[in-house]
Structures are given as structure tokens and as C-alpha cells.
Amino acid sequence: MPVKRYNPTSAGRRISSVDTFADITKHAPEKSLTIPRKEFAGRSHGKIAVRHRGGGAKRRIRLVDGKRHKFDVPAVVKAIEYDPNRGARLALIVYKDGVKSYIVAPAGLKVGDTVVSSMGKGDIQTGNRYPLEHIPVGLMIHEVELTPGKGAQIARGAGTSVQLMAVEGSHATLKLPSGEMRLVFKQCMATLGQTSNPDRRLIRWGKAGRSRHRGIRPTVRGKVMNPVDHPHGGGEARNSIGLKNPKTPTGKPALGVKTRRKQASDRLILQRRPKGRFVGGAA
Fold it and tell me: What is the pLDDT of residue 282?
């Protein structure tokens, strides 16, 4: 996906860039595979759970098949589509028996290609889905399961991929985009290739209006609020926050505080990601 720059005809246009959508072959979604999207504006049970969410362009949710449990039935790619709910592209596939489905399109997948999902060994081709134990070591994969049969959980974002490092015993060793080394059951399914649209991370949104279209509302610094609204608020003129460490609006420690709790899956993590490593997109 190339990124396009325009002549600087305005302040917002000067620093912004846009997606060319050159890889899109079908513009209207398959209506039978979409459902309405209700607007929650970051609220759960009427209370704000995620700040700075709301508004945005109206959109419908595409029903994406992350499990692909229609085994050993070839499917032909009919179209590559844009999805407003994610950065990666979607591929509309039609199985040999006529059933239509959406899958997250891997990079390089084209209209007319054939993909298949199988529990056994098969052709090493981009877009095919197999258990980790049947994938050659060293290949790049995406949409990896953490629990067999649960569906895609790891490496679903635009341009992301996971490297299969080894398969020993009952587990496979994966190197995640963050640099973390992790064990996963070798029966877990994964799709061959890298997720599509790797250049999405290069887009510069340029102005507030484009963020509002995406459903992102303005962010206000805590130190310019009143004390009743934020722990950093209050004071005359440009004061410091007046605290030893920064805090969230609810008074909890912020910035650099570890939030991960002890989990049973910690024993499967062989090596943590390096500090300061860029996690989003391609590593």
C-alpha cells in the first residue's frame, strides 16, 4: 500500500499523508457478512471506561472468520476490501461449496488465488492455515491462536507477523513482533504470511478533523484542569504537577508503571520484550 503526499495547500495538508487504496478491488462490502455497529463512545454500563472516544464516521462491522474451521475445502479470493474497523485489508473468499466468508488478507494475496485451511500438512502458500506443528520452522505467520480452537489472537494488526522459531515436545516457540519469545501449543492454528497493509504505520493524520472521523476525541492535559477534575490540576500560571510521580485521572500511578498481573501463562514466556521496543506494527 503506497502512501500519498499532497501539495501543502493548507496547514493540515502540509504534514498529512493518505492511503492510496491501490490494492482495493471492491468498494461496497458484502452485506450478508456485515452487522450494524452500535455506538458506545467508550462507555460500559453508562460510565466512561475508555476516555477520548465517541463520534466518528458511521460504519458497519464486518464478520471476519478468525477460526476458518471449514477444513480441506479450497476457497477462491474474489475481492480485497477496505475495513474501517481495522488497519489490515479483508479478503472476500468463496468456498467450493458456495459459502462466502471474510478473512484478514495477508500481504501479497491477490484476486483469483486459492487458499485452504487444514489440520494436516499442505502447500506452503501465503494465506493457507495449518497447525503450528505442520508449518516449517523459520516462516513468518500471523493470526496465531493461543488456545487450540479459539481462533486468531496474535498478530492480527496491519503489517504484523510472528516468526516460528522451533517446535519441540508439545509446544512451539514463537518470536512476537515485540521481541518476546513465547511458547504456544503446537496444535494451535496459524496463517502463513504477513498481515496486509504494512505501510499503515507511515500515515500521518495531519489534523484533528481526521482523528474525529476515526472516533477519537480531543485529549486535554491534566495540569491545565482544576484540582476537582484531575490530580495534576490547580495552581497559578504554569506550575508543575506538584507530585512525586504522575497519576491518572482516578489517582492511580501512571507512566512506566507495570500493570500486568501474575498469570498462569507467565510460565510460557521464555523471554520478555526488550524495554523501549516499538510494539505496534512491524518490529
Answer: 43
